[in-house]
Every structure is written in C-alpha cells, then in structure tokens.
Amino acid sequence: MKQNIKIIVNVFFLVIISLTSSTLYGKESVLESLLITTSKGTSVTYQIEIAKTPAQMMRGLMFRDNMPEDQGMLFIYSPERPATMWMKNTIIPLDMLFIDGNGMVVNIARNTVPFSLDRISSGQAVKGVLELNAGQVDKHQISIGDTVTLPDLN
Questions:
Q1: 63: number of CA atoms within 13 Å, CB side?
Q2: Is residue 22 part of a domain?
Q3: Is residue 36 assigned to a domain?
C-alpha cells in the first residue's frame, strides 16, 4: 500500500511539472543579463532565467540534459531567508552561488552531484541562489565576497 501511494505521489508530481514546463521554460522564457565582478577585478556576464514563483523554484533546472555555458538560473527570495537546494532530478552538475541582499556571494557549492538528495545549504539568509554549469566558478575564479549585479537583487 505504501509503495502504491509513493507511485501515485510521484506520478502527480511529474504531471504538475510537465504541465507547468511549457510556459516556464519554453519559448516564453526571458533571459536577463547578470554580471559577476570578481575580487580579482575581472567580470563575467551570464544570461539567466529567473525563478520567482513557487512553481518555477520547485522545477528549477530539473530534467534538463544541457545548458549553454553562458547561461544559468537565479532563484530569488523575498524576503531574504536561509536557502536549501538539492539535485533531485537534475541531470547536469552545477555550481551554486548563494547571494545576499547586497549582491555579495556569501557561499559557494562547487560541482554538485546530479540526482543527489543531499541538502546544499546557503549557511545564512540570502536574497538569491545562482545555478551555473559546474566548473564556471573555477574557470572564472569566482569566490566568496564577489559581487553579483542584477536589478532584482540590488
């Protein structure tokens, strides 16, 4: 009986995700520019999708098998709060940047493991979490204390 309930819940979840995915991640998705300025004085620009609604946040980057190197997804929290992420149903490894209300990177999770159910914590209240392809943090020498510029964060 418990197994049947689990199956029903999982099927329901997948149906909800599939119904919302066409408007969240189809042609209607709008990419915005996000600038990261490092403590080394360099900067890098990403084109990002913004997840603000509960449905967008629940879906995140789940079920995607690729993402262009210069793209990412930003989760915005209002008000600021501690954030906990996971990689359930996420196929691609990610770097996660936890960003405070001033646009400062306050924590980084590098090369997160696809499909992992381990919790990834911000460690403090944050305004946003930026998910990038794994390896971007090291490639661009992004570190704690760097600045993220986006109108929704500042």
A1: 9
A2: no
A3: yes
Count of structural domains, the chain: 1
DSSP state of 26: S
Q: pLDDT by residue (tens digit) across 27-76?
A: 456 899 999 999 999 999 999 999 878 888 888 899 999 999 999 999 99
Please provide the average confidence, as pLDDT, over all residues in the chain.
85
19 inside domain: no
- Whether 3 is covered by a domain: the verdict is no
Contact call for residues 116 and 65 (beta carbons, < 8 A)? no
Per-residue buried b or exposed e for 41-51, using 16+ beta carbons within 10 Å of the residue's own CB: eeebebebbbb
Which two structure tokens, joined as six digits, stand for 70? 């210069």
Could you tell me where the beta strands, DSSP code E, fall in the chain? 32-37, 43-51, 71-85, 94-99, 105-109, 120-133, 147-149
Give Dmax over CA atoms of the chain in angstroms: 59
CATH number of the structural domain spanning residue 66: 2.60.120.1140
DSSP character at residue 122: E
Kindly report the length of the chain.
154
pLDDT at position 14 is: 43
